[in-house]
Amino acid sequence: MAEPGVFLIHGLGGTQYDLGSMHKRLKNAGFVTHALTLPGHGTRPEDLAGVRMEDWLDAARAKYREIVGQHEVLHVMGMCMGALLALELVKLERHDKGRLVALAPPVYIDGWATPWYRGLRPLLYRVPGLPERMKVEEEEPYGIKNEQLRAIVKAKFERGENFHYGWVPLSCIREVDRLRAAVMRGLDRIACPTLVVHAREDELTSLRSAHFLVERIGSGKRAGLARMVVLEDSYHMVCVDNDREIVGKHVLEFFNANAAGGFGMGMVDPAMVPAEMAALLAAARLALEQGDFAALYRLGIPDFVWLQPGRNRSSGAFPGRKGLQRLQGWAGEGASFAAFGAAVINAGMAVLPATLLHRGLASPGVLALQLRRGKLLEARWFPDDLDAEDAHFGGEPLPDGPSEQEKAFEAAAALSRTLRKAPDNATLLNLYALYKQGAMGDATGERPSVMDMVGRAKHDAWMARRGMSREQAMADYVALVNRLKAEESLEA
User: Where is each ACB domain found (predicted)?
Assistant: First the structure.
């Protein structure tokens, strides 16, 4: 696809939904973002006990190979342990289709808050059973210098909210140490321009890590290939701490993007002539007049988002394909727009009056559409009378993030990558078909030729699930992965 992509890799204890602000910034700047939940993450900390460094790396490389052919330009970015995985990934894959950003990479675990006995870890690793049983707790300052934000994070941990693991087994730290050792070797094989972002006061890892990477990646004939940005008002969690705006600015500049991509509808250079913007707006208006939200989403980038205000069942953010499915839950009841006024266009934003129609409701307001490179980035609806829409639609907003079923589905996908023995071919095809049906719905595309026996078998297996609901496919996939993992545990 024409839009450049960015592959984001989360840190230890997080999920693919981390780095949310960076997803938003990158999307506003015209990028398509990709992410994954690493094996052992997104469920319970106990599930990390049997996961090895190779499992994380294999999952990241599999995702990379899935998406690298979709973009002419693909950048890779990781945070903390995700930065280590990103470094190793671009090294092993000989990545040269884009750039690399390493945020707070812990090549050395030697920050000011690490205990004096940190060097004794290798001895503890040798005690039978201890690495799997011993817990390493998340403690203050939680990587955050901003006191207000730190208090919020502390309260979330105390309430037991499942936004991030509150502890990890020592065996997990052992695997990070193994990953660190792998990263230190062969850095001269990295062929893409690299940016290292590191806080001077990082409590987990000192600036020694950043200096080490820049010196090794940019040595010899490739001098200048790597550079770093040092932050002066943050701890480890650089994407959310006091310097987050500086991080976003430098990342976008490094990716040769407009730094205006922000948390809201930033003024982004549309990279379109007026006639192209007029044609795109006309197509969007036609889709809205017809109540065809699927057509509207086809005019957007893959993670195009519709934003609807209020406190009712139509309210919320509806990003990408899954967002469209949620949006159609209420819009499919006959929602459309009419009475369009003249559009006012400024940089990449078009604002035009309109009226939302739905089962007797005629709610006037303003639509704001953001455009770039022939695509819609996002659309926001601003009604004149929000209370009237709340009263009309009723109910409560659906959660903006993934449903519990979707979380379980992605966790099962990560868990499947930890299987020690590959299942038989029939089971592998079943896993593939259920995952594709759960993630994408009915099969698309042409059937591969007889020369592509594997591709043909996979396509046929997916096609055999046509008509199965995504919810049922997700449930069957989770059950199958859990059964395979349980059988493997019994054999151990």
Answer: 405-490
